[in-house]
Every structure is written in C-alpha cells, then in structure tokens.
Amino acid sequence: MSDFMAVNSKQGAAAPAFHLQLPDGYQAPAEWRGQSCIMLPAAPCWAVLDYAAVMASRELLQGLFAENDAWPPADLTAADDAADLAWHEVEFIHGKSFAYSLLSTDLQRCLGCLYLYPTASRDHQAEAYLWTAVTETELLRCAVVDEVMHWLESYWPFSALAWPGRSIAFSDWPHANYYAVQRNAI
Description:
The chain has 186 residues and is α+β, with helices and mostly antiparallel strands. The chain has helices at residues 47-56, 58-61, 78-93, 138-155, 178-185, and strands spanning 2-8, 13-20, 32-33, 38-41, 98-103, 110-117, 126-132, 161-162. The protein has 5 helices and 8 strands, in the order E-E-E-E-H-H-H-E-E-E-H-E-H. It has a 6-stranded mixed sheet with strand order 3-4-5-6-7-8, sandwiched between helices. Helix 1 (47-56) packs across helix 3.
C-alpha cells in the first residue's frame, strides 16, 4: 500500500492523507480491449481526441469529482488538457493513480475516461470516477460503462472501491477528492 500526503500550496495547509491499496507487486493493466472500447493509460498522445470529448461533454463533467467542482472550465485550452494528460501519465507510471482513456475500437474517438484515485476514506481502497462522451449514442455509452464495470470487477483486486457521485451521493461523502486537491495545489 502506498500512502502519501499532498500539500495545498495555495492554502498552505496539508491536505488529507490519501491511500491507494493494491497488493504488493500488482501491476495495473496497461491495455484492455472490450467489444465497445479500448482502454489505454491516459497520456498526451491522446490529447486531440481527449480535448474534443472533454469540451463536448463539459457540462456533464462539471461536478464529476465533487458536487461543485467547475472542472473543466470554459477556458480550458488544448495545451491545458495535454498537460493534464501528462500528469495522469506520470501518476500511472509511478503507481500513484490510474487514469484510462476510453477509446473507440478504431482509436479515432475518445469515448470517455476512467479514473482510479487514492482515497482519504479509511473504508475504501480507492475512488473511481467514470464518464462517457455526450457525442456518442446512449447505446454505446451504456455498453462502455457496462464493459468498464465488468473489467474493474474482473481485473482489479478491489473489494471496497468507492464511487463518489455515482453510487455514493456527494452529500454523503465527506472526503476530499485526490484529483481536485492536486489541481488546486499547483
């Protein structure tokens, strides 16, 4: 298990202790191919596709990580998005968090993203956030969600994965979000 503290330099205060509990030696899958999507670690090489999906889905994404989270802002640039993907890539490489781009099977569209983050909850091993692009059909979006959920249950060793905002109302979730804390620390 890796434990670490994030420091919010804007406020000068220590952020909550976040932990991501995985068995020693566990390697996060570097690729998964389903019938509806391919999952690959989020990285700047997907920035053009990701940026298009993020901006098209902007209203859906606001509030993904916390009830009043305004990410992504209206003025998010392609460079900002690429930098965010670079951060996700470094996090993945170092095993601190795991963000996946959900791509069409022909690798021509970003269908959404899956994020597996450390949590401040002592009752969970990690937090998960998932979104699908509003530019896709409802049928495809549902298929992608079903495949991702099955993949998480089949390939990851989590017995207590939290889904704030999805299966746990934000009003019932008192913990800070790792990604939001990291964004605000810069």
